[in-house]
Structure prediction request, 312 residues.
Amino acid sequence: MNIEELLEKFKQGNIRALGKSITIVENSLDGCDFLLEETSKINKNPQVIGFTGSPGAGKSSLIDSLVSYIREKGLTVGVIAIDPSSPFSGGAILGDRIRMIKHSTDKGVFIRSMANRGQTGGLNISAKSAIKMISAFGFDVIIIETVGTGQTEIDIVKTADTVIVVQNPEAGDGIQAIKSGIMEIADIFVVNKSDLKGANIAKMTLETSVMEGSRKSDWWIPVLMTSSVNNTGLDILWENIRKHWDFLNESGELKKRRFLQTKEEIIASLQDKMEKYLDNKLQKEVFSNILEQAVNKEISVNDAVTKIFHLL
Prediction:
């Protein structure tokens, strides 16, 4: 199947074509730029919901339950789960498609695990491109789950419309520990595993943090409680997710966020292309000679950078 045929099947709603297209984009294979260019012309506007939080908070289980709840509403859902990279293959090592196996036969759900490939912000460039492709495919809601490594997860705010920070009630002082970083990006706080001891204390602590924190907009950040085990709190969570979507559209905040997200995407893509360009250039003899001089301490690193910059 050539790239044009793949695109046609994509436009026809073939789910396998979506999966193959994302693989091409993720690995920068032949046809990558063509697919991104053509699918970007398809104007869709799903709500992009980001889930982040510390490991052990139960993000995957919560998303699994929420997907079922959303499907009951008759909406389609695309899920991108960012997993840690394998040190051997570079691929995703957890595989949320396995954890969410019950949705595998549902044509209204698309789940894709992607490796973070060392990105410390929780998302990689190809993941952001994949989200655009899932959007163009026509899913009503897109959910992103980050790796979950604490304060480094702030990159999600540059991609998602609504950011949900999930907290484990057993984290205790961990809530205070992440207050200066990840706490500021939340549009909604969720204390998951609310059936466990300490859930009410965790909720009160978060509510205090919200009251004491500076507000970026007129949106008041709710602190909710859910239990994936008992499937409780999903209705309230979904209600607040949709309320936030309405707020973004009515206040003009969505347009501002999309502007900043596009700006960040352009900058990130430029950095990626420049890095590859420089890496290629530095393979040439003239640059190798400069590098050799710096290694031998014949010139300083600063001098080497200046020489290379002028040559470029």
About this structure: Residues 263-311 form one domain. The chain has three domains: 1-41, 43-251, 263-311. DSSP finds twelve helices and seven strands in the chain.
